[in-house]
Design brief:
Number of strands: 21
Structural class: alpha+beta
Strand content: 15-25%
Number of helices: 15
Shape: globular
CATH architecture of the largest domain: 3-Layer(aba) Sandwich
CATH class of the largest domain: Alpha Beta
Distance between the termini: 25 Å
Helix content: 25-40%
Length: 441
Amino acid sequence: MTEFVVVGGGIDELRGVVRGEVLVAGEAGYAEAARVVMAEGRPGVVVRCAGAADVVAALRYAEARDLPVAVRSGGHNAAGFGTNDGGVVIDVRPMDEVKVLPDDVVRVGAGAAWGDVAARLGKLGLAISSGDTASVGVGGLMAGGGIGWMVRKHGLAIDNVVSAEVVTADGAVRRVDAVNEPELFWGLRGAAGSLGVVTSYDITAVRQPTVHYGTLLYPWTQTEQVLNGWAEYAATAPESLTSSLQLAPTMMADRQVPVAIMVCVAGDPAVLEPLRNLGTLLTDKVAEVPYAEVLSDMSMPADWRPRIRNGLFDMWWPDLTGRLLEARQQIPAMAMEIRALGGAFGAMPADATAFAHRDAQFMVNSVVMGTPDAQAAQDFDAFWETLRPNGAYLNFLSNPTDADVDSCYPESHRARLAALKQEVDPGNVFRNALSVAPQPE
C-alpha cells in the first residue's frame, strides 16, 4: 500500500508533485474539466490524474483544506456527481489504459470511455458487457453496476470484474479481488463510488466479435398490445437476447411516434421471430454488426437538464402497462425505456456485489425532457409514487433522495456498506446523495 504524499502548501506545490494537469478557474481546460453533462460546476481545483499517485496527492490537498471531493470519469452521472463547487475534482480521464492480459482479462483504466474500449477490443474479437453510450466513462458506469446490451447474456459490467486498483481515503493504493480484501472488492462493485477512487479494473472479456443489433418499429396505435406481448416474451426469452421497449414523448409527431423495440442478440438471431409477430411490423432494421457499433451517443441542448427516475420490477403485470401509458398522456415531455433483465443478470446471488436487485426482470427508466422551468408543470414525482417498484438503479437518478438510497440498497446491503465505509472511509470523504454513510461501532 502507498501512503499519502504531503501536499500542505498551495497550487504550486500540488503542481510540483502531480504528473498530470492541475487546473484552476481562468486557465485553459478548466471550464471543460469542471463541467459535466448534468451540472455546471465551479470547483476550486481540478486535478487531471495521470496515475494513482496523482489521486493520492489530490486527496491530500483536499484533506489539508477540508474541501469536498468529486470524482469524474466520463461526466455522465445523472445527478452530476462528477463536479462540485469550491472543492477538488479528481479527473481520472487521463487514466484510459486498455491492456489485454492472459486468459482474455483486460485491464481498463477508470477514465477510459466505453466506446474506445469496445473499439479496441473489437479488433481482437473481444467484448465486455458494458453500458450503451460510447462516451460514458468506465469508472462512472461501474459505480452503479453497468446495465448494457449484453446484460442478459453476460450480466452487469461489474459481474465480470476480477480485480480493481483503488485509492482509499487514507491514501493507500490497494489491489483488491476475491482473495485480497474481499469485502472492499464486494463494495466497489455497485457502491456509488463511495469507498475510494478506482483507478483501473481487470475485467474478463468474452469472445463476441459481432452481435445482431437494431430496431423493430410498430404502429403507435398498437402500443398496449406490443408492450404486453414484449414483456411476456422478454421474461422467458433465451438469455442471448437483450431488448428494450422505447416510448418517445407524446409531444412528438402529434402523439403518433411508432413503438420501438431495440434488440441485441449475442447468439442465434432466430430468437427475434416472436418479437416480429407482436404487431404490424413497420420497420425491421436488425443487422449483424461489430459489437462496438451498438454503443452510440446522443446530444441535447445545452440548457436541458433532464429529470430522470427509474424503477426495478420483479415481474410485469397488465396494470403496470396501463399506468405507464396513462402517465405518457399526462406528462407529454416524458420518454420511457423499459429494459428486460433476467438471464445472467439474475443468476448472480443477491449478496455477491453491492448491487443487490438480482430478482428484477425489468427496469422502467423515464426521462422528462427540457429545461428545469419547462419540467415544473410535469407531475413526474407523483407518477412515480404510484408505481412502487421493487428497487432502483442508482445510475439513472437525477435528483436522488434519502428514499432513493433505500430503494438502491436493501437493509442488509446498507448495513454491510455502512460497516465497510466505517472501515475504509470513516471521515466520509467520498460522499454523495446516493452513498451510505459510515456507521461507528
